[in-house]
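Dear Dr. H.,

I hope your travels went smoothly. While you were away I took the liberty of generating a structure for the chain from your last submission, since the lab meeting agenda had it listed for discussion. I wanted you to have the full record in hand beforehand rather than looking at slides cold. The sequence, exactly as received, is reproduced here:
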Amino acid sequence: GDAPDTFWLNMSNFASLVAKDTLMNLQPLLDAEEKLKNDWELNFDSLKAAYKFEGDAYSWPRDYDTITLAVNMSLLEEAGLSLPDSANDFSAWDWVMCKEYATAMTKKEGDRTTQYGMVASNTSQTGWFNWVYSNGGTVLNEDKTEFTMNEAPAVEALREYTSYRREGMAPGSEALQTMGESDQFVTGRVGLMHIGSWNVGTLNEQVVDFEWDALPIPYAPTGNSICMIHGLGNTIAKSTKVAEAAFTWVSYLGSFAGSGVLGNSDTVIPSRADTAPLWFSPQFKPDNRDLFLTWTDKSMFYPNTAEPTSAQWNKFITDEMTLVLEEGKDVQQAMDDAKKSIDDVLAGRAV
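The corresponding predicted structure, in token form, is as follows:
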């Protein structure tokens, strides 16, 4: 069928669609009108960079999301704890303190765990990626030709992250199949859970029996707390027969007025620096909601590749992390095995 004239595009698929020559180049239209170019420039730098190819814009940033840890304040208080000192962007909140908090909020009755300290799921965006990059690790090398999560900083971070499962502080696959991680948090069975900013509205609706707040990704021994950033862009198909109308629509969505509607919706954070604060209005919970904005400058994109596509090599990370989390495979061995497969895929060798 025919492609839509305009559509949302996530960062993961941007490179591959540009490579397939399916996106309209927005740069000539931006350069032709100063006001529109100024509107574009008001987007956060990292988001502009994410939707440019060889210096030209192929998508107009719409929104973005960053990652924090949601914390059940009732379980925290029951464990005799309080939120960490917020000084210096919660710099006291490190791996050691996070483990202490999760330990204190984990409860058992005999051999059965009735309350978990933290969720440690097999996901990149709301999981291990944040720990790897905080510790100085990476997924791919700079030119995206080699897998690098088998190197020491990443392996150390993965060992720390997966220790929550190994030590019984995080629900395993059996518990998560019975009740998903979000439901476990909402029903008061989990103390800490990685969330994206898109989850905030839902949690505010569903959490009714306790107060909740947010904490940043715990600081690694490097002294860094880095989270994953992702988002959507408003995009025009190169095949459109109504390019002028499509660009008028996309540029409106990127204007102060269009972006402001999104900011006031309490759904996702607008990509413009002057409308993003609307999402952080004091009327919206949680109290530490501004962490999602503060960490915009402490965030990294998940690396994506055009050819091969990211999906072709990402699956090997997921498969190996499943073996680590569910079967106790050694992290170093798992990442070494992933590297063999992923490097072959990146080099164009069939796996």
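Two observations you may find useful: The chain has 17 helices and 13 strands. Residues 98 and 218 are 7 Å apart (CA to CA).

With kind regards,
E. W.
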